[in-house]
Write a structure and sequence with these properties.
The protein has 21 helices and 17 strands. By secondary structure, it is an alpha+beta fold. The strands form five sheets. It has a five-stranded mixed beta sheet.
Length: 526
């Protein structure tokens, strides 16, 4: 049942006042009332349905249970049950503000959001975009995010269309001509959108605390569409871009091979030309394809030539009877639409070749920097969410007669988490500034190593932060529901950040190999 703010306000205006004495009389299974934040709730019938059993409610029956409630429940629980259980107001109760409109605790928000802090990177358009996007997320996405993530349900078409209409799907590609002419959340012109707006977008999406569902919100688009933007024919771009950016169609990148994994040079899916020369016939499989389960288009790496990277081409393959997908269950669930894809003699028009034949590897790697940098921003934002959850929990959770935050060992853990998050955030912004100011061609050479190194550092940092958060929450951190739910869900993403987009070891090696190319023999003397 959905209750509008007007309906709830009207109910508050007409409900009766209840004294502490009257509340205390309703302390039995036959009549069980409790009070939370000055609101009296009749839990008589609900007691049998309570997940913790009726006994949990009987221990606070007839009492103001505000402190006990908030020690065990997230705010969403009260929002869900308050309209149907409230029967009045508790006279003389002290009501604590819910804190929704209060600033986040120190270190729990991006530096630019903190009162009195200045940044050379952001301006009023970034602030307006954050405000507009946050309102959009709270209205259109947040109400379904947790349920979809838990059920393994991908975002539906209506949500994609709504995101497309707001220009958010186009924002996921980063700055570019595809944004020109669009008015984005906050009323900003698409022409002014830069990579710092991207950071804002990643941060606001990460606050949902649903990593799997977040990847379902166009994760496949962010890596599947760029090759078409850079190398697609004008006809291909004219057809595909409007369909995908409007939310009408979905696209994914199909590179990872069931046999070769992410080794693009070892791809085994084969594309051979038909005798008439008008089609490629594609046979092979792809695995771990984000967004593949519901994709209409597959930007697919295939082998058209000899062994190695020199024999790889990139094709745009449309879903057909010869293209089948099977949803995969990964550690963070099914909401990302990760799929095993099979091409069984799929016929693809030669016009769907992206770039040049046997030059597909170059089309694939052109987006690596951007993909990895976006992952860095996302990893840091999710790490910051873990820090916020931990700091808030440490402030309200009591153990051994005092709040957790009173324990030096807990403060030490929180300090370590904050230091990791702040350092990685600064590195991501530093790279972002280079991406905003450095010519694109120069970025391919100059930023490949630093971005790779940053991603490896960010993913290791998140593993440390996630582990610390689990220690702060204890058993709740390994429970899917309740106070530690966000920590549990986010922990499932940790290894995705460490593996997807290039594993930590490979990225470390890439960064140093590129750096050593600049070290001439004469410069190596000590």
């Amino acid at each position: 049942v959905t209750h509008t703010c007007t309906e709830m306000a009207a109910a508050e205006a007409t409900e009766r006042s209840i004294t502490f004495e009257e509340l205390a009389r309703h302390n039995s299974e036959e009549s069980l009332w409790i009070a939370v934040d000055g609101v009296v709730l009749d839990c008589t019938k609900f007691a049998k349905l309570h997940p913790g059993g009726a006994q949990a409610l009987m221990s606070v029956a007839g009492k103001d249970a505000t402190e006990e409630f908030w020690a065990l429940h997230r705010g969403t629980v009260l929002e869900k049950y308050l309209p149907r259980l409230r029967i009045g107001k508790l006279e003389g109760a002290t009501v604590t503000p819910d804190g929704k409109d209060l600033p986040a605790p120190p270190y729990c928000s991006a530096p630019v959001e903190r009162s009195g802090w200045k940044s050379p990177y952001y301006n009023e358009t970034h602030e307006a975009f954050r405000k507009g996007l946050r309102a959009f997320v709270e209205k259109e996405i947040a109400p379904v995010a947790v349920a979809y993530d838990e059920e393994g349900k991908e975002p539906d078409k209506d949500l994609f269309l709504t995101m497309g209409q707001a220009g958010i799907l186009a924002c996921r590609l980063g700055p570019g001509r595809h944004l020109h002419g669009l008015t984005l959340p906050g009323g900003i012109d698409g022409k002014v959108f830069d990579h710092f707006h991207e950071i804002v977008m990643v941060e606001e999406f990460s606050k949902l605390g649903t990593p799997g569902f977040n990847d379902g919100l166009g994760g496949g688009l962010t890596i599947g569409l760029p090759p078409i933007v850079y190398f697609g024919t004008p006809a291909m771009q004219a057809k595909i871009l409007p369909e995908v950016l409007s939310g009408e169609k979905r696209i994914c990148l199909a590179v990872s091979d069931a046999y070769a994994g992410s080794d693009a040079a070892g791809i085994t899916a084969v594309a051979t030309k038909t005798p008439c020369g008008r089609f490629y016939e594609v046979t092979g499989t792809k695995k771990w394809i984000t967004g593949g389960a519901s994709a209409d288009y597959f930007t697919t790496a295939v082998r058209t030539g000899g062994p190695g990277a020199g024999g790889v081409s990139l094709l745009l393959i449309e879903r057909s009877d010869q293209v089948t997908t099977k949803r995969m269950t990964t550690r963070y669930g099914k909401a990302a639409g990760t799929a095993f894809v099979t091409f069984d003699k799929a016929r693809v028009p030669v016009e769907n070749l992206i770039g040049k034949e046997n030059k597909g590897f170059q089309c694939i790697v052109i987006n690596f920097n951007h993909e990895r940098w976006v992952m860095c921003a996302g990893i840091v934002a999710q790490s910051r969410l873990l820090l916020e959850e931990s700091m808030r929990w440490a402030a309200i959770r009591k153990a051994f007669g005092k709040p957790l935050i009173a324990q030096p060992v807990i403060r030490s853990r929180l300090a370590g988490m904050a230091a990791e998050v702040e350092a990685c955030h600064a590195w991501v912004e530093q790279l972002c500034y280079q991406m905003c100011t450095m010519p694109l061609k120069q970025q391919f050479v100059a930023l490949g190593g630093p971005i790779a190194l940053c991603k490896a550092r960010c993913s290791r940092s998140m593993e440390s932060v996630s582990s610390a958060a689990a220690q702060v929450f204890g058993g709740r951190a390994i429970t899917k529901t309740g106070m530690g739910a966000v920590v549990e869900r986010t922990a499932n993403y940790v290894k995705f950040g460490a593996i997807l987009g290039g594993s930590e070891e490979i990225l470390d090696d890439l960064a140093i190999r590129q750096a050593m190319r600049e070290l001439q023999p004469g410069h190596a003397r000590l």
